[in-house]
Amino acid sequence: MNSRWLLLFALALALGASAADDVAELAHLMDDSSDRKPLQTMVPHYPEKARRQRLTGEVEVCFKVDREGNTSRIAVRRSTHRIFEKPSILAVRASTYFPLDEDQKLPGIKTCRTFRFQLMPVAIEQPQ
């Protein structure tokens, strides 16, 4: 067996995937037009149950950012599947923004972030 095949096989075992399975991937789509700059953006965890059921979807989460850069008043605006809502809320709650300077005014506009949960096919090379 060549080392490349062994590496791919080990990766497939670690992910719990077979040649027909998919790898869970999450893509952050966009923030709305906010002037606040993210300091640390957390990525939601792809729920294992959703991966096993091959579910994909999008969640739009809206929230406010306070003067210190912490998120608050987090709410789901739109969701294609409830299973993705809690991980999206937790990711926004753990994210932080740069704090405002003392002389800056705090805008009263909420910010929204959309997350896309999708599955990507895994290609596993067969031994010859």
Q: What do these coordinates show?
A:
The chain is an alpha+beta fold and 128 residues long. The chain has one domain: 2-Layer Sandwich (TolA/TonB C-terminal domain), CATH 3.30.2420. It is built from 3 helices and 6 strands, in the order H-E-E-H-E-E-H-E-E. It has helices at residues 3-15, 48-52, 85-94; strands at residues 22-31, 38-40, 57-65, 71-79, 96-97, 111-121. Strands 1-6-3-4 form a 4-stranded antiparallel beta sheet, with helices on one face. A hairpin with a 5-residue loop joins strand 3 and strand 4. The protein is elongated, with a radius of gyration of 19 Å. It starts with a helix and ends in a 7-residue tail after the last strand. The model is unreliable at 1-21 (pLDDT under 50).
